[in-house]
């Protein structure tokens, strides 16, 4: 059986054991995390709303996306036009204009936000939507990826992802194009 | 201090002035310099072609020639690198170990062993420094631009001691010149292209003289400059450091 | 002239295009420099990445065992493929069982290496590569020229013409925004119609049995989450021990590859979707051979960032296609001789050993040292070009005889001074084609020294 053959070959070929290193705690810049997060997030093409809005979430979304017809969200605070609980086939989400989800952790050094299956309800939602909005509590910000991985259990659900911006590509002559196969925009609301 | 000076084969044959400048400079700085009559080659050309087994006799010969010196110095980063790094395939007896540990490129010898702080030289020209790869990334004579470390350079430090010398900054501070020994003949088109691109950068900065710690790089660039009939000349680092007349 | 040299010569003949290609890749190297300088502890991070990968190689069998057990606990089906043929068969069997006719595939150098597309297409399955760069070269029927930016060798006008022909975009249109939008619409259809999705694996986590897939476009996720069947193909060396190690690698990968602090999507797949199937195919295909080679096993630490290609002055001026293998550039040149020493014997020589690749490698693979070592193996095994070994043996012999060497030098210089230029710069003089030989002085250094100092 290939498995046994391969493992046997590895046992014969592998070098002497060398130990794993200790990962130290690295120095964190003095700037306030939300400012750093906003800066780095915007560098990757996101829009980050820092200031508390006078509008409620529903109104904010309508203001940001006035033309949106299909809005989906597992969050009860949002007025959605699509009930995600009704959806069984992910293909039915193909015409979603705006999806709104809540993130668990935000990473200031790169603008990445951790969301998992429970946050999105349908795995394809944050990718298939034309525009993505992620709500993130400011006290869920950490500085670097080491801290982020320490705070999350990657296999808590069957799927989790760090999302760091709108989808993009530079595959055509290194010209940056925002909105490749995934969402055309990412708006982060830090509340 | 007695120094065994090693003059690489191509300097011996084609650029004796570099050997002479090395000798004079070390003597000026108080060293007693000896060049063994029988010295020939460090073996790098053969080894880089894959024939290090054939070069073993050249390695043992080199050690034989230089084993009695406290310090072995050469005006070549690549030969120094070769002795220090690649002489590990011959039996590591006491002589071999000592020779490998005490072989220096002249730039590091001046700064780290002689610890010179100034030079009595002048060279009133616009100079472009070519950071020869083996010296830079092999011997760490400087920090390459790839690394996130304080940017230092022994060669720049030494050039800084020369009166009236104007050192330019290049956009691609440490890209390879394209010589690469056997590469220059195996892949001539890329070799030439790389050399011409380096030259273009120096031209853009109005450089009059290109210098480096390795004459092989300069031989390649000079070959291109002369064929293109360009006015830029090449000078080995030691020729500049040894230059006293205005 | 060897393969790489010939192809490189052809590439370079178009000086303007070479300049454009070189500048484009240097720009990516520059972005990498900027991004890495943002992390003061960057060199420490590289060391950590290197040590973790060293540990992985030294306990690879244990980690793979652990990985499989945890994946299976999660309801994932794990398969083992000893070679490319077996890998292709396994993937096909998974598809055939469900009578799947249309699949989408995100970027995976492993599947390229195994020629999965050709295998499946021959069996009547539609395979759509969904990474934009990969889709472009798939439509053009070419191999990728870079592992991260597969279409870096193509100009936008050429892509525009290709899309006009294949996707019916406007004739003459070359705006990247427009072309990307057209590809988006086209690929969206494919995602929605696909019955299975194949991805590569950036990192397999032994501790949890999950796989991590990194993209900027979101194409891997669009494929995986819309299809009932997801298949992740992983080389054995992609394993890392624990999730916490991802902290190191997610900080190293994006910055090294494109100068981004992280890829837009870092997806962690652990369990199949409700009602779906999740498969992982673990592939050897020569990796255990490389693991057994003491001098070359470090090449297995590679996280496929492409930084070595972006910095290599030869790669930038010759293009990925001149290497003749799925993974080109410096890393390709130390992987391929292990696969076929004779066929790829020219690649370790397609280098000046400048060492830049080793210094940008996020996991500290000693690439330039391995290039040097492969040269020795190639010479020992008799794969140097005809006459090369003989001439090196003669040179070595000559250098061991100082009197003979000095005489040869003296007469050589005399010839150079006396012979007419036309004779010296003949067609055998490769150096002399574009370069002048150095002036031949009357006196060598030794002759001067003996005359002026030794008396």
Ranges of chain C with pLDDT <50 over ≥5 residues? none
Tell the overall outline of chain A. globular
* Tally of strands of chain C: 10
Helix fraction bin of chain C? 40-55%
Query: In whole angstroms, how far apart are the ends of chain A?
Result: 55 Å
In short, what is this structure?
The complex is a heterotrimer of chains A (191), B (246) and C (455). Chain A is α/β, with parallel strands linked by helices and 191 residues long.
How does this model look, in words?
- The complex is a heterotrimer of chains A (about 190), B (about 250) and C (about 450).
- Chain A has about 190 residues and is an alpha/beta fold.
- Chain A is built from six helices and eleven strands.
- In chain A, the strands form three sheets. In chain A, strands 1-11-6-3-2 form a five-stranded parallel sheet.
- In chain A, strand 9 (about 170) and strand 10 (about 175-180) form a beta hairpin.
- The mean pLDDT of chain A is about 95.
- Chain B has helices at about 10-15, 15-30, 45-50, 50-65, 75-85, 95-100, 105-115, 135-140, 155-160, 185, 190-205, 215-225, 235-240, and strands at about 1-5, 30-35, 70-75, 105, 125-130, 165, 210, 235.
- In chain B, strand 7, helix 12 (about 215-225) and strand 8 (about 235) form a beta-alpha-beta unit.
- Chain C is an alpha/beta fold and about 450 residues long.
- In chain C, helix 2 runs antiparallel to helix 12, helix 3 (about 40-60) crosses helix 12 and helix 16 (about 330-340) packs parallel to helix 18 (about 365-380).
- The interface between A and C is large, with 74 and 97 residues.
Please give a handful of descriptors for the protein shown.
heterotrimer, B: 246 residues, alpha/beta, four-stranded parallel β-sheet, 13 helices, C: 455 residues, four-stranded mixed β-sheet, 10% strand
List the helices and strands and how they pair.
The complex is a heterotrimer of chains A (191), B (246) and C (455).
Chain A: H1 2-13, H2 33-43, E1 47-49, H3 57-64, E2 71-72, E3 98-102, E4 105-107, E5 112-116, H4 117-120, H5 125-128, E6 131-136, E7 141-142, H6 145-151, E8 159-163, E9 168-169, E10 177-178, E11 185-190
Parallel strand pairs in A: 1-11, 2-3, 3-6, 4-7, 6-11
Antiparallel strand pairs in A: 4-5, 5-8, 9-10
Chain B: E1 2-5, H1 9-14, H2 16-28, E2 32-34, H3 44-48, H4 52-66, E3 71-74, H5 77-86, H6 94-101, E4 103-105, H7 106-113, E5 126-129, H8 133-138, H9 154-159, E6 166-167, H10 183-186, H11 188-204, E7 209-212, H12 215-227, E8 233-236, H13 237-241
Parallel strand pairs in B: 1-2, 1-3, 3-4, 5-6, 5-7, 7-8
Chain C: H1 3-12, H2 15-37, H3 42-58, H4 60-73, E1 77-81, H5 84-97, E2 102-105, H6 109-113, H7 116-122, E3 126-129, H8 132-140, H9 156-167, H10 176-193, E4 196-199, E5 203-205, E6 210-215, H11 219-226, E7 229-235, E8 239-240, H12 246-257, E9 265-269, E10 277-283, H13 287-291, H14 307-311, H15 313-318, H16 329-339, H17 356-360, H18 367-380, H19 388-399, H20 402-418, H21 421-424, H22 445-452
Parallel strand pairs in C: 1-10, 2-3, 2-4, 4-7, 5-8, 7-10
Antiparallel strand pairs in C: 5-6, 6-9
Helix pairs in contact in C: 2-12, 3-12, 9-10, 16-18
């Amino acid at each position: 059986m290939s498995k046994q053959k391969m493992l046997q070959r590895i046992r014969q070929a592998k070098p002497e054991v060398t130990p794993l290193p200790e990962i130290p705690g690295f120095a964190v810049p003095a700037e306030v995390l939300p400012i750093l997060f906003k800066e780095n997030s915007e560098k990757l093409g996101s829009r980050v709303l820092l200031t508390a809005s006078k509008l409620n979430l529903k109104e904010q979304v309508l203001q940001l996306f006035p033309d949106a017809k299909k809005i989906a969200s597992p969050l009860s605070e949002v007025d959605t036009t699509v009930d995600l609980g009704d959806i069984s086939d992910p293909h039915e989400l193909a015409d979603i204009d705006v999806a709104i989800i809540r993130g668990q952790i935000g990473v200031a050094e790169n603008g990445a936000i951790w969301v998992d299956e429970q946050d999105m309800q349908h795995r394809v939602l944050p990718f298939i939507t034309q525009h993505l909005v992620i709500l993130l509590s400011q006290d869920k910000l950490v500085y670097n990826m080491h801290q982020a991985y320490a705070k999350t259990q990657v296999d808590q659900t069957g799927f989790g992802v760090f999302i760091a911006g709108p989808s993009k590509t530079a595959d055509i002559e290194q010209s940056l194009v925002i909105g490749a196969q995934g969402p055309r925009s990412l708006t982060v609301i830090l509340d | 201090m007695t120094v065994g000076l090693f003059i690489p084969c191509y300097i011996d044959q084609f650029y004796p002035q570099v050997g002479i400048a090395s000798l004079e400079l070390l003597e000026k700085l108080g060293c007693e310099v000896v060049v063994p009559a029988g010295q020939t080659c460090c073996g790098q050309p053969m080894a880089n072609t894959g024939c290090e087994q054939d070069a073993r006799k050249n390695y043992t010969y080199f050690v034989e020639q230089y084993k009695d010196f406290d310090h072995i110095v050469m005006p070549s980063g690549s030969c120094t690198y070769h002795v220090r790094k690649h002489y590990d395939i011959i039996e590591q007896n006491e002589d071999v170990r000592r020779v490998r540990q005490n072989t220096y490129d002249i730039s590091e010898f001046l700064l780290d062993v002689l610890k010179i702080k100034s030079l009595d030289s002048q060279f009133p020209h616009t100079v472009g420094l070519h950071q020869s790869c083996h010296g830079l990334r092999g011997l760490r004579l400087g920090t390459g631009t790839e690394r996130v470390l304080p940017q230092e350079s022994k060669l720049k430090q030494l050039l800084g001691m020369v009166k009236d010398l104007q050192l330019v900054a290049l956009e691609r501070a440490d890209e390879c010149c394209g010589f690469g020994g056997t590469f220059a003949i195996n892949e001539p088109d890329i070799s030439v292209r790389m050399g011409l691109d380096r030259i273009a950068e120096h031209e853009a900065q109005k450089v009059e003289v290109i210098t480096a710690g390795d004459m092989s790089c300069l031989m390649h660039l000079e070959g291109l400059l002369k064929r293109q009939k360009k006015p830029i000349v090449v000078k080995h680092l030691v020729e500049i450091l040894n230059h006293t007349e205005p | 002239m060897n393969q790489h040299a010939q192809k490189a010569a052809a590439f370079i003949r178009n000086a303007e295009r070479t300049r454009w290609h070189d500048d484009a890749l240097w720009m990516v190297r520059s972005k990498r420099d900027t991004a890495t300088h943002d992390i003061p502890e960057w060199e420490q991070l590289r060391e950590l990445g290197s040590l973790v990968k060293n540990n992985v190689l030294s306990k690879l069998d244990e980690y793979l065992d652990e990985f499989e057990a945890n994946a299976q606990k999660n309801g994932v089906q794990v398969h083992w493929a000893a070679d490319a043929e077996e890998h292709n068969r396994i993937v096909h069997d998974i598809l055939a069982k469900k009578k799947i006719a249309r699949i989408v595939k995100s970027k995976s150098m492993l599947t390229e290496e195994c020629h999965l597309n050709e295998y499946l297409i021959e069996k009547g399955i539609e395979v759509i590569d969904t990474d934009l760069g990969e889709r472009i070269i798939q439509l053009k029927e070419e191999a990728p020229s870079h592992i991260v930016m597969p279409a870096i060798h193509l100009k936008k006008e050429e892509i525009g013409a290709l899309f006009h022909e294949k996707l019916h975009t406007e004739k003459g249109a070359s705006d990247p925004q427009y072309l990307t939008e057209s590809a988006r619409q086209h690929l969206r259809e494919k995602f929605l119609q696909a019955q299975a999705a194949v991805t590569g694996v950036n990192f397999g986590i032994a501790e949890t049995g999950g796989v991590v897939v990194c993209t900027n476009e979101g194409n891997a996720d669009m494929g995986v989450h819309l299809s009932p069947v997801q298949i992740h193909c992983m080389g054995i060396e992609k394993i890392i021990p624990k999730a916490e190690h991802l902290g190191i690698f997610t900080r190293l990968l994006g910055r090294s590859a494109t100068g981004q602090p992280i890829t837009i999507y870092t997806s962690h797949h652990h369990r199949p979707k409700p009602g779906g199937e999740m498969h992982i195919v673990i592939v050897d295909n020569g990796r255990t051979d490389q693991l057994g080679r003491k001098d070359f096993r470090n090449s297995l630490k590679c996280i496929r960032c492409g930084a070595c290609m972006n910095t290599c002055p030869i790669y930038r001026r010759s293009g990925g296609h001149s290497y003749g293998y799925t993974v080109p550039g410096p890393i390709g040149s130390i992987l391929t001789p292990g696969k076929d020493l004779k066929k790829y014997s020219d690649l370790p020589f397609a280098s000046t050993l400048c060492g830049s690749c080793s210094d940008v490698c996020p996991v500290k693979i000693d690439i330039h040292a391995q290039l040097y070592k492969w040269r020795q193996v190639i010479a020992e095994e008799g794969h140097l070009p005809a006459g090369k070994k003989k001439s090196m043996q003669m040179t070595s012999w000559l250098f061991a005889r100082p009197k003979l060497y000095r005489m040869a030098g003296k007469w050589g210089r005399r010839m150079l001074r006396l012979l007419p230029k036309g004779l010296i710069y003949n067609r055998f003089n490769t150096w002399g084609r574009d370069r002048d030989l150095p002036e031949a002085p009357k006196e060598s250094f030794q002759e001067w020294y003996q005359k002026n100092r030794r008396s």
